[in-house]
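Please, is this right?
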Amino acid sequence: MTKKKNKKNTRPSSAAAPAIAIQSGETIESASRPIVAAHTIKGVDDSGNFYNGHEELATAQLRHQDEFYEANRLFWSSGGTGGKNDDEAMVGDGGSAADAADGLAFLDRYLSDNHDAKRRFDRAVDLGAGAGRVTKLILLKRYSEVRLVEGDEGWSKRSRVYLGRKRSERCSFSNQRLEDLTAGDVRNWGEPADLMWVQWTLQYLIDVDFVDCLRILSGGLRKGSGILIVKENRPYGVAREDRFQMDVPSTVGGNERYDLTRNDSHHRFLFHKAGLKVNFMERGEETNTYALSVSV
C-alpha cells in the first residue's frame, strides 16, 4: 500500500459544511457525531453498479478481494501514478509540499488543543509509507524516530534513497502489506508508538480489512496518549457527498486498480467498528483528516 491522491473529482464542492472556517478550503468540524446504520451506507462503482447498503458493498468486496489486491500490487510495483519525481508518484500531482504543510499544521493544532503532560514524541509509524514522503516532511519534524511500513518492496527500498542517509538513521523499515498485518507484526515493531499516521492508503483496503487493520494498529499505540492520524479522500465536487465512490479494475471503468472514496459517515462507521473514537477532525477541499484514539 502506498499513497495516491484521488483526482476523479475536479470541481470544488458547493455544499456548505456546518463548521468553523480556519483557512481557505479547510474547515474544522465537530469530532462527535452519531454513528450511522449500515443500511444507510450506499454508493456506486465506475462500472455502473449501485450498492444499496453496506452489506451489499462488503459482499462485493469479499467476492473480488483477491482480484482487487492483485491489481493494486501490480499498479504500485509498476511505478504507481508516475510523475517527475517520487513525491508526484505518491500523490499523483505537484501538490506534495502543500499537502505536507497542511498535515503538519493539523498535527500541531491537535497537539496544541489537546495538551497532555504524559504525551511523548519518541516514536511514530508511517503506514503505507511509499517513498517516505510523510516521514520526511511531517513525522521526522516532530518525532525522534519513525518506522516506515510499506507493502511494495521496491518503494520500501526506494524510501532509503528518498530520505537520505541522515534521516534514514532515525528510521526503521518494514515491508508489510496492511491487509495482511497481524498483532504479532505490530508487537515485533518494539516499543508502543506515540503516533501512527496513515494517509491515502485505507482507500485501497476493502472494508473488513480497513476495520481489522485499524484494530490491530491501535494495539500498538502507547496506552493513554497514543494517537492515530487518518487522512483520506472524500467525495466532493460533482459527486454526491452522501455516497461512496468505488473504482474497480475493469475495462468498463478504465481503471487499473481498486480504490474506494468514503464519506465522513462511512469512515466513522468503520472507525467505530474498529474500537476507535474521533477526537479531532478537519475537512479539506478534497479530504477529511481525523485524529483518533482507542475508545475507553
